[in-house]
Write a structure and sequence with these properties.
With 315 residues, the protein is an alpha+beta fold. The protein has two domains: 113 residues, Rossmann fold, CATH 3.40.50.10330; 168 residues, Tumour Suppressor Smad4. It contains nine helices and 16 strands.
Length: 315
């Protein structure tokens, strides 16, 4: 199945036709389109029930997340093409940002390499491919989604603007939003901003990756990072360090860092926002996280095809 989100930032009619022809050269292909929120989950769930071999998804990270949630525990593999504004998961796998170029790599991979089973994080029943964010992070995503039409034309600039605007006007920087209870008994009593990583980088700013954890990998458990300060100098240091690939910020007293996490619970001091794979899901008073190994079949590009040394391919 070739599943397309026609509203995604990088999807054009020409791109869709070129990719469909390439896929159909050696494979029987059924075209499907998403038309509303959560539609991709229903489409992929039904495709898995009909025993499709693979779902090739052309869309943004939100469409990929929905598609993955429909394939959980099935024998149908997810194959990724970059069609959004940032394409975090596709780029994490090493795919180029051009969807036509990525299609050539994908087809060679399907022909010569079996899909791999990967583990995913899950929060309140929703699985995520690369991360979930709580507090300030999610508030920024909410502001971006209010200006969704601009993402196609100025996505990265829009995220920077939204981050500054949220910090100034749309988020309480003074009061902690929640506490975190880990399954080892430890408690982070106060947090204003937390990220749960399934992969690294956390995101991209243009060509620059924001790397928060060398421990976040599809073959390992989750990484939980809690931040209890939104002071401007500390946030700028965190971002500049992430761009440089430095993890020195892990040692700061206002940051709690845990790797290979299997379960934890987030309890709100008040309702707080959260997002999953860049998709804003509203406000809640609690969240339950867990790591589930081997839950999704994924077509993972051979590192030699995408120009990466073996250790840099997170799958």
């Amino acid at each position: 199945m070739f599943l397309v989100n026609p509203a995604a930032s990088s999807v054009t009619p020409r791109t869709r036709v070129v990719i469909q022809k390439a896929l159909a050269a050696d494979h029987e292909v059924v075209l499907a389109e998403t038309i509303r929120r959560d539609h991709a989950t229903r489409i992929t769930r039904e495709a898995a029930e009909k025993s499709f071999d693979a779902i090739v998804v052309l869309g943004g990270d939100g469409t990929l997340n929905e598609a993955a949630n429909g394939l959980i525990g099935s024998e149908t593999a997810l194959a990724v093409l970059p069609g959004g504004s940032t394409n975090v998961f596709a780029r994490t796998l090493g795919l180029p940002d051009d969807p036509v170029e990525a299609t050539g790599i994908l087809l060679e991979t399907i022909e010569n390499h079996a899909p791999k089973r990967i583990g995913l994080g899950c929060v309140n029943g929703r699985y995520f491919l690369f991360h979930a964010g709580m507090g300030f992070d999610a508030a920024v995503v909410a502001e971006v989604e209010k200006r969704g039409r601009l993402k196609r034309y100025a996505s990265h600039a829009l995220f920077v603007y939204a981050a500054v605007d949220t910090w100034l006007r749309h988020y309480d920087r003074k009061k902690p939003a929640f506490r975190i209870r880990h399954d080892d008994g430890s408690v982070v009593p106060n947090s204003k901003f937390a990220i749960c990583l399934n992969t690294d980088p956390y995101t991209y700013l243009g060509s620059k990756s924001l790397n928060l954890s060398p421990d976040a990998d599809l073959s390992r458990g989750l990484v939980a990072i809690s931040i209890n300060s939104l002071r401007v100098n500390r946030m700028l240091n965190l971002v500049s360090g992430a761009i440089r690939g430095s993890t020195a910020f892990h040692k700061h007293s206002y940051i709690d860092y845990k790797a290979d996490v299997s379960n934890f619970r987030v309890e709100g001091h008040r309702p707080f926002p959260y997002q999953v794979d860049g998709d804003y899901l509203g406000e809640v008073t609690s969240l339950d996280f867990r790591y589930t190994p081997d839950v999704l079949k994924l077509v993972t590009p051979n590192p030699t095809l995408v120009g990466l040394p073996e250790h840099e391919n997170h799958a």
